Amino acid sequence: MRATDKIEKLFIRKVLRQEYLPGTQIPSEREMAAEYEVGRPVIREVLQRLERDGWLTIRSGQRAVVNDYWKEGNLMTIVHLLAEEESIPDEFIVHLLELRKSISPAYVKDAVIHKPLSVVSLLKESEMVPDEAAAFAEYDWLLQRGLAAASPNPIYLLILNSFGDLYVKMATHYFYEASYREASRSYYRELMEASLSDDGIQAEFLVNEMMEKSIQMWKAQTKVK
Q1: pTM of the model
Q2: From CA 29, how far away is CA 48, in angstroms rounded?
């Protein structure tokens, strides 16, 4: 790993662990160069990258200031967060689930309207999924990708692809509860019925309803408020 990449990861980890708080100044270039045993040009490059991705603000003649990444971040901030699974704040997972609730009904509706047979084929596979957490997580991820791919809007799949590793890991944890697996099986069956009827509106309703249930179940399981 290049020195710039390593230092960037360490900095982001400190922000996520609240060792660097929003609004506070970080050490000077000279101090950071000494700490990481690199030249100042390396530190300067790291700081420029961090500013580009919303983590801090550089001020001429002054020490850089840590940003509130929830407000100043961008798509690259999400990429960095996903690379730091052990440091991801609990609320970030809830926010991801809320994002999924916002976009899933749309791409599933599109998929049912444009490629109902593909959707039925995907859902039919749920009948053969073993009743275990890891298998359910893997299937649910493949289902989501397949549904997004069946939508005529390719952006949905690009968004989902960003969350693959984290999605499967969190879904495995979620599906440890047998009742959650059964709830999903019931959901898959209902969604299949809507797809067989080419009923995109009903599919959209079912997805929205299930996504809201999954948020509440995740909160109950992880004790997140």
Answers
A1: 0.76
A2: 12
